[in-house]
Amino acid sequence: MSKILAIARITVKAELRNKLIYILLAIALLFLFMARGCAPAKINIEKGFINADQITRAGMLFTFNCILFWGLSLCGLLAMNAIPRELDEETIVLTITKPVKRFWFLAGKFLGIFFIVFINLIALTIGFLLFFYLRSGTADPRIFAVLAAVTPNIILVISLVFLLSLVLPRAISALLTLAIYATSLWLSILFFFEKVRAYWEPSLPTQVLHYLLPQLGGVHLYALSMMSDIFPSSMGMWSLIDITAYLIIIWITMLLVFQRKAL
Amino acid sequence: MTSAAIEAVQLIKNYAKVRALDNLNLEVREGECFGLLGPNGAGKTTLVKILVHLIRPTAGTARILGRPAADERIRQHVGYLPEKVKMQPFLTGSEFLDYQGRLYGMDSRQRKTSAAACLKHVGMYDDRDRKIGGYSKGMVQRLGLAQALLNNPRLLLLDEPAAGLDPISNKEMRDMLLQLKNRGVTIFINSHLLSEIEMICDRVAILNRGKLVGSGTKEELTARNTSVELKVEGISDRLLEKIKEVATQVTVDGDTITLSLRGSEPISTLPEIIIKHGAKLLSLTSSAESLEDIFYRLVKETKAHE
User: How far apart are CA A74 and CA A121, in angstroms?
Assistant: First the structure.
């Protein structure tokens, strides 16, 4: 474990020198500022159908999804470079020729990236809650439960980008993963909301695609259901099992590809 | 009987269009300093990469200190200096060695003492807190050697260790390797610099186009061949044909015939052959072949056979 942590530490050090992180952080701060606009203080609700509490939640969910989107972009950007850069710059050689299993190298890189993404998401969520509280006098701490519930998705996104970056150009590996996430989320919205299904009957190819793709959307909606009743929670367990199965397959495949890779 | 530190049995490595190693059999004994010579593209680096499991062989087996090269546990006792030493430029010299020490599973105290000793050993102690990105090529090479020595290895694999070193650093590196050799460390040097190998190594192997074309101690290799220079008056084609029957390589320049003989015995037959063919022997000088001569000849011979 200490060897995995050593590789994770070096990964964090290397990634913190990546200017792209700071550009993304600036964008994320912009999102945080948006939280002010989402707060209900100035919204006139007297003639509306929704109450102040619902507006607060909607504002929180919107901003939280923005933060999550930022976190996923960060996952893609960091993960797509993590292994290819070590291979291109050949810095991997003096790591892998030590008494280190190749799996430990992958695990160390993964932990490093996951640590940066997760710390960033937690920091932004705390900042967001603080902004929200100062503006509206209310903040829902259940947002941390949502963050915890969506963690399997973050793990899967990093893992999938890792795997794809071993066989595809790095930018494509990140874009493809984010496209899979977006597709899965979109299909999940269509499948999980009964009101939507009343107007739309999914075709067979759509159904096949929905069941073939990892249930990232299912987990996403399940996480959001912890804060709002409008999101379905019924498929949460199934989606989590699906994501776990995908994670096992991805890591076994990644290991097989990486074990055979000439360095 | 000394055991094998490195054992390659019928090792084959194919790349897309090239066979880099062709049924290579090699044994390096524990405690010896072994030099692998070969022209560029001979397969030297491929062999070392297989030994540290950076690449897999297509066929055959490679063993290090009695265990398969793929077993990462054996690398606890191996130090490796690659041909191109690449390190994280944002780390300082001591941070890098600390990282490498962690990969060896050393505790904090071990890492500190071992890193300090290795940095002193390679003359980098005063530069330990500078970023690697600001190091010269020679300094990077020295730090590379320091990381290879960090775990007090039983086997040291050095791929072109003199690359990028100035003559002074080169001599210092050589002296360091001699010290390690005296301490009983098995050293495997992969180089195309003959002088390096000649000065340090006990045994030498010559690799060309993935095949082992010669191996042994320097004395064994040189004793096998004698270089002879004859000054002869009245050289005829028949005389040259007769000489070619006993010699491996014959070149003629005016009245001078230069040839290589397997061993030194056939020298005594040369004057007789010359006189028999009606020529006059003016002088005969013989010398054992240098490593450079052997290297050059063996590589040429392989090319000629192909």
Answer: 10
